[in-house]
């Protein structure tokens, strides 16, 4: 993850350069190297750690959706929160997101959980922690990623004129608590997990609210409808 090794969209690279030169990032890099030397499988692949930033350049961010950790099962994580690779079963939280999309904006059900179509339109699908050890949920928390993704959120907050922050659950809401609400729209709701979705996630209508705000700012709304074939994303 050194400056010569990272694969990262240029706009983000310039703004986040101090982070890559920081002591915490050096420590994080050492931790990841040690994980792999110890024979641990780490998700997602190294060239996908920053996939969310690569697909959604800073000057194109219109919506931010915050997640927590990558999925820790084989073949799932590919660098976007809530998203899984084509051919992988749609996770329960994303199933609930699709249900809310259907009632909110008339979303037509798809048989995949691949969200790159959103990312390419300016929806930053950012996890707080960008890696995980296989079959060990939350195994890479507290190693430095949280500081890096705090810097990503600060950069969006400061550099982008009008962004919708969709914050599901207490963790995401605390992480982005400093966002300037005079410039940006902050939408809060319980997490879409089956454990909490019925406590106010369903019926929160974040997708139509986000598009209404974007239109009011003279910006293009998000096409939330995913293609039936993920290869068309």
UniProtKB/TrEMBL annotation:
Key words of the record: Cytoplasm, DNA damage, DNA repair, Hydrolase
Keyword Metal-binding: no
Superkingdom field: Bacteria
SUPFAM superfamilies: Uracil-DNA glycosylase-like
Molecular function GO terms recorded: uracil DNA N-glycosylase activity
Tagged with keyword Cytoplasm: yes
EC id: 3.2.2.27
InterPro entries: UDG_fam1, Ura-DNA_Glyclase_AS, Uracil-DNA_glycosylase-like, Uracil-DNA_glycosylase-like_sf
SMART domains to which the protein is assigned, alphabetical: UDG, UreE_C
Enzyme class: hydrolase
Coiled-coil intervals, chain numbering: none
Entry GO terms, CC: cytoplasm
Active site residues per record: 69 (proton acceptor)
Pfam families named in the record: UDG
Gene3D superfamilies: Uracil-DNA glycosylase-like domain (3.40.470.10)
Uracil-DNA glycosylase-like domain segment(s): 54-214
Chemical reaction(s) catalysed: Hydrolyzes single-stranded DNA or mismatched double-stranded DNA and polynucleotides, releasing free uracil
Protein location: Cytoplasm
Any one Gene Ontology BP term: base-excision repair, AP site formation via deaminated base removal
Family the UniProt entry places it in: Belongs to the uracil-DNA glycosylase (UDG) superfamily. UNG family.
Protein purpose: Excises uracil residues from the DNA which can arise as a result of misincorporation of dUMP residues by DNA polymerase or due to deamination of cytosine.
Protein name from the UniProt record: Uracil-DNA glycosylase
Gene this protein is translated from: ung
């Amino acid at each position: 993850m050194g400056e010569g090794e990272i694969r990262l969209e240029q706009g983000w690279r310039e703004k986040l350069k101090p982070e890559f030169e920081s002591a915490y990032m050096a420590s994080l890099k050492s931790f990841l190297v040690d994980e792999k030397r110890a024979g641990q499988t780490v998700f997602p692949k190294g060239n996908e750690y920053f996939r969310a930033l690569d697909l959604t350049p800073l000057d194109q961010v219109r919506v931010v959706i915050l997640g927590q950790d990558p999925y820790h099962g084989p073949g799932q994580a590919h660098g976007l929160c809530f998203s899984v690779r084509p051919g992988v079963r749609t996770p329960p939280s994303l199933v609930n997101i699709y249900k809310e999309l259907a009632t909110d904006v008339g979303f037509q059900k798809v048989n995949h959980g691949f969200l790159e179509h959103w990312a390419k339109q300016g929806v930053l699908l950012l996890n707080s922690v960008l890696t995980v050890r296989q079959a060990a949920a939350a195994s890479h928390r507290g190693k430095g990623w949280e500081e890096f993704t705090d810097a990503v959120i600060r950069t969006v907050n400061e550099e982008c004129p009008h962004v919708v922050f969709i914050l599901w659950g207490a963790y995401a809401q605390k992480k982005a608590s400093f966002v300037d609400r005079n410039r940006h729209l902050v939408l809060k709701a319980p997490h879409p997990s089956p454990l909490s979705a019925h406590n106010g996630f369903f019926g929160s209508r974040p997708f139509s609210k986000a598009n209404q705000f974007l239109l009011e700012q003279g910006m293009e709304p998000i096409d939330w409808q995913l293609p039936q074939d993920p290869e068309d994303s």
